[in-house]
């Protein structure tokens, strides 16, 4: 098994939203009638946040069968590296595509689903809270240094931070509703 590439966090690139928009058009032209929505997620979707040079996109599908159909169609527009997610009930594929500046990860996810909602919510929290985004950036840079080439460990190590941010947001929203 070949060693994986090291986790490298790069400075925010102001071209990422434009690159996302260009690829979004390609995805919509290819599978638009089969999906329920598409979102720019992950660190490249948060202005000012450092990230791996990967633009994450999430397309909503109604079922695994629709995800399978979309995956086959996306092969025709240079998506590859198909990694079905075994055992997942709401995340069907993460497929990749090379671009001269970045790499794309397109996640085919059940919509509506908790996974969809949490991905969008975390992105929106980071966009609205620069201090949380700065803390996340610092964590990712530290983990990239510590984890080296272990991308799975890097991803797992971020989970506690992400969950704590989402839990804190949920607690605040519950307080608003109950008047506490």
Structural summary, described in words:
The longest helix has 28 residues. The chain has five helices and five strands; from the N terminus they run αββαβββααα. The protein has a five-stranded mixed β-sheet, sandwiched between helices. Helix 3 packs across helix 4, helix 3 packs across helix 5 and helix 4 packs antiparallel against helix 5. The chain has a single domain, classed as Beta Polymerase, domain 2, CATH 3.30.460.10. The protein starts with 15 loop residues before the first helix and ends with a helix. It is α+β, with helices and mostly antiparallel strands and 180 residues long. The model has no long low-confidence stretch (mean pLDDT 92). The radius of gyration is 17 Å and the shape is globular. Strand 4 and strand 5 form a beta hairpin.
Key terms for this structure?
180 residues, 5-stranded mixed sheet, 5 helices, Beta Polymerase, domain 2, alpha+beta
Q: Could you provide a short overview of the structure?
A:
With 180 residues, the protein is of the alpha+beta class. It is built from five helices and five strands.
Give the quaternary arrangement of the chains.
Answer: single chain
Beta-strand content? 15-25%
Helix content: 40-55%
Please write the CATH class name: Alpha Beta
Number of strands: 5
Class from helix and strand fractions: alpha+beta
Counting structural domains, the number is 1
Please tell me what the overall shape is: globular
Q: What is the count of helical runs?
A: 5
Main sheet: which strands, in order across?
A: 1-2-5-4-3
- The name of the CATH superfamily reads Beta Polymerase, domain 2
How far apart the termini lie comes to 54 Å
What's the architecture, going by CATH? 2-Layer Sandwich
Q: How is the CATH topology named?
A: Beta Polymerase, domain 2
Computed CA radius of gyration, to the nearest angstrom = 17 Å
The main β sheet shows up as:
5 strands, mixed
N-to-C series of helices and strands = HEEHEEEHHH
> Could you name the ranges where pLDDT drops below 50 across 5 or more consecutive residues?
none
């Amino acid at each position: 098994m070949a060693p994986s590439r090291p986790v490298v966090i790069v400075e925010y690139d102001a071209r990422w939203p434009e690159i996302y928009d260009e690829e979004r058009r390609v995805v919509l032209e290819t599978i638009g009638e089969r999906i329920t929505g598409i979102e720019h997620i992950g660190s490249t979707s948060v202005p000012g946040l450092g990230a791996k040079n990967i633009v994450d996109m999430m397309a909503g599908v109604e079922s695994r069968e629709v995800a399978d159909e979309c995956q086959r169609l996306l092969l025709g527009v240079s998506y590859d590296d198909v990694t079905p997610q075994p055992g997942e009930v709401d995340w069907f594929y993460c497929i990749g595509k090379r671009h001269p500046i970045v790499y794309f990860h397109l996640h085919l996810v059940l919509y509506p689903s908790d996974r969809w909602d949490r991905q969008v919510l975390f992105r929106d929290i980071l966009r609205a809270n620069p201090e949380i985004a700065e803390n996340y950036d610092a964590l990712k840079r530290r983990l990239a240094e510590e984890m080296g080439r272990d991308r799975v460990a890097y991803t797992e190590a971020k989970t506690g931070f992400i969950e704590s941010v989402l839990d804190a947001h949920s607690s605040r929203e519950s307080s608003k509703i109950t008047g506490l």
